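[Automated response] Your request has been received and processed.

Submitted sequence:
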Amino acid sequence: MSSQDIPEENLPAEQDHAHGAVGVADEKNPFADPGLPPHEHRVQDIDERAAKRSERAVAFLFTLSMLATVGFIASYVAIPHDKSVFIFPLGHISALNLALGLTLGAALFCIGAGAVHWARTLMSDVEIADERHAIEAAPEVKAKVMADFRDGARESALGRRKLIRNTMFGALALFPLSGVVLLRDLGPLPEDKLRHTRWAKGKLLVNMNTNEPLRPSDVAVGSLTFAKPEGLEEEDHDFQTEIAKAALMIVRIQPDNIKDKRELEWSHEGIVAYSKICTHVGCPISLYEQQTHHVLCPCHQSTFDLSDGARVIFGPAGHALPQLRIGVNDEGYLEALGDFEEPVGPAFWERG
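Generated structure:
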């Protein structure tokens, strides 16, 4: 249907916009301005039912964008990152990446397609020719721009086409949630995981080298032994995560040489157990000087005095090493009497 098929009284009134002056070619100006062709009304300008159909189409696209955004979030949460699917001819690809790409692409496409369809079918398509002007706008030009803006806002029918307006606002408001959800990749919230390790009351101290429970007689004065909690095996999928918090170093010191009262109470016959994880940046401590009872972190030379509550005596570490309270069970094996009372590892006080 075109404007020629509609009675003249049904056609929209022509807006008072100049279509450019038509010039006449002569010897001085062989390329005269031919002017703009007569404006052709669209079906939506003539038939309100067609305009309603276009309005519903635009709203449908915006609604699809909202659903795609919800699908993006649901895919991110529900699909395991290691799940794969076979897509011919691409082969096996990540199901999560495929779902995120499709839903994010659909959300963006539907917003763009809805905006384009809205502009091409419902917004004014009258071409306006205007003269060039200086960069600095005169007051009357500014007034004209504001008037044109108001006319454009009125012609866009944003206030009258409430279905389009509401669904567009919904799509634009919901879509940024896709980026917010991606912040999850910064890592899961630690909750209280940093405050707890695999140590608990009754857990035996197992030698890291022999994988056998330790007796007091196994720890000689001046020796350094590394231990792990009973039940933690290298084959466990979370071994590295757990040992990074539960790694223990055991030293036997003459009880008379222990200066810290709590350290002495938490030891057994001079056997003290401290976290092996340096409180600076988390390096494993492995160097022990038996004459001074100092342990040294090899990364940045933080030094701790194991005879005085493992306090820092040199280096960048800001906190003493946490001590594990130990005892002996009925079978004569060294056991933990609980978990560390403070979090192990570096910079917890700054993070938590």
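Summary generated for your ticket: The two ends are 69 Å apart (CA to CA). Residues 15-20 have pLDDT under 50 and may be disordered.
If you did not submit this request, please reply to this message.
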